[in-house]
Structures are given as C-alpha cells and as structure tokens.
Amino acid sequence: MKIKPIVLIDIDGVITNFTKFYVDCAKYLGFPAAHGVDEDWCPKHWNVGQALGLKRYQRAAVWHRMSEPNVAQTIEPYPGAIEGVTQVMQYADVYFPTQPIYESSTWEYDRYCWFKQHFNEKVADRLIFTKDKSVIFGHVFIDDKPNHIRDWKKRWGTGTAVLWPQPYNADVLGIGAEFFRPNEPDWRWVHIRAAEAAHRGEAPSWTH
Ligand SMILES: [Mg+2]
Questions:
Q1: 78: CA distance to ligand 1 center in Å?
Q2: How far does residue 144's CA lie from ligand 1's centre (Å)?
Q3: What is the pTM of this model?
Q4: How many angstroms does the Cα of residue 15 sit away from the middle of ligand 1?
Q5: Distances (CA, A) of 104 to 44, 78, 98, 181
C-alpha cells in the first residue's frame, strides 16, 4: 500500500546556515578572529567558536548576540534548501524538529517568523521545538548532528535516518549500517529516500 511518508527535517545545519550565522554575529561584535572569514567557511568540528579561535568570553558574547530578539530571523537558508524542502512537501508530510535556545526569550517566535517569511504560515505550523527529537515518529529523519541521528534510529529501528553531510560530521562512524550520509547536500536524494519509504508502505515502530 502506498502511503504519504512523514519526513522530519532538522533546521540548523540542514536548511539554514548556522555556521555563517555564528560568524556574522562574531563579526558584528567586532572580534578580529571572525574578520576575513570566507562566506562559505565551515569548521571540521562542532565548536564553531573554538574553530574560529574565539576566547571563552567571546563565545559567550556570540551566544548572547544570537539570543537577542529578532536576530535569529537573519539566519540565511542554504542555496536550494527552500526549493528542496518545498519539493519534498509535495508528496510527504514534512515536520521540522528543532532545539530551542532557552537563553533567548524570542527564539521560537523568531523561528516561526522566519518560516512564515521563507515558506508560509502553514509550513510554520509544522515546527516542533524539543530537546529530544528521538520521540518523534517519522519514516525519514534528517539531521546534521550524529547524536540525534543515533538516538532516533535506536528508537525507530526500521526508519530511515539521514546524517546531513557537513564537514564537521564527515568522520562519523556507522554510515551504511545505522544510517545514511549522502556525499553532498542533495535534496533530490531525499526525494528518492522518501519515495522508497512510501513505496515500502510500512511504518517504523517503537523499539524500546
Ligand atoms: Mg542541526
């Protein structure tokens, strides 16, 4: 039986360029380490601030800046991401699990506005704010963070877990066995995975 698959798509590092957002905030604060950094620069490990060479107090200041009202609305989508997600939405029920930043009093509202601006209100209604994405049911789950992918896959054994490729998650083990990692950010590849999940017609089930 053919079904409409549920596809869960993480936002930061998948749809939006969180790295550039971080660097832009560091530049705004005038930290010399951030100046001269290319538009498409991306670190090889998770801590952007450390990769930039920022001191601890500077990294704290960047987080503070990111948490100010409206600032989160300035984060940029990756080229092709809005179009790619829109295509996936044509044949899948898409939801967007994302971790809130509790230090910000307006993060969730800013994110909602961002979705209304780049998609529309109906799509914005599909945001899911949570620290534990593994409890959310779906046929396909896409995230750039290995821990989220592992936790979700552990709960939903037969579900398709996709580690969205970034330079900072290139050395993760388990590819092919536990989860997929496409060679490059490719929304057509997501279409194929979602279509396969729909064709199989079986829903992942809770494993523990
Ligand atoms: Mg992410």
A1: 13
A2: 5
A3: 0.93
A4: 9
A5: 27, 23, 14, 32
d(CA 82, CA 11): 11
- Extents of the domains making up the chain: 6-16+77-200, 18-74
Q: How far apart are CA 17 and CA 102, in angstroms?
A: 20
Can you give the pLDDT at residue 173?
72
Q: Counting beta carbons within 10 angstroms of the beta carbon of residue 44, is it exposed (0 to 12), middle (13 to 18) or buried (19 or more)?
A: exposed
pLDDT in tens, 154-163: 999 888 999 9
Q: Which residues of 25-38 are buried (b: 16+ CB within 10 A; e: fewer)?
A: bbbeeebebbeebe
Residue 39's pLDDT is what? 85
Q: Is the pLDDT of residue 17 over 70?
A: yes
Ligand 1 center–CA 77 separation, angstroms: 13
- Taking the centre of ligand 1 as the mean of its atom positions, its distance from the CA of residue 1, in whole angstroms, is 32
Rounded Cα distance, 100 and 130, in Å: 7
User: How many whole angstroms from 207 Cα to the centroid of ligand 1?
Assistant: 24
DSSP annotation of 4 reads -
Tell me the CA–centroid distance for residue 97 and ligand 1, in Å. 9
Q: What distance in Å separates the CA atoms of residue 43 and residue 76, rounded to the nearest whole number?
A: 17
CATH of span 6-16+77-200 = 3.40.50.1000
User: Looking at residue 95, what DSSP letter applies?
Assistant: E
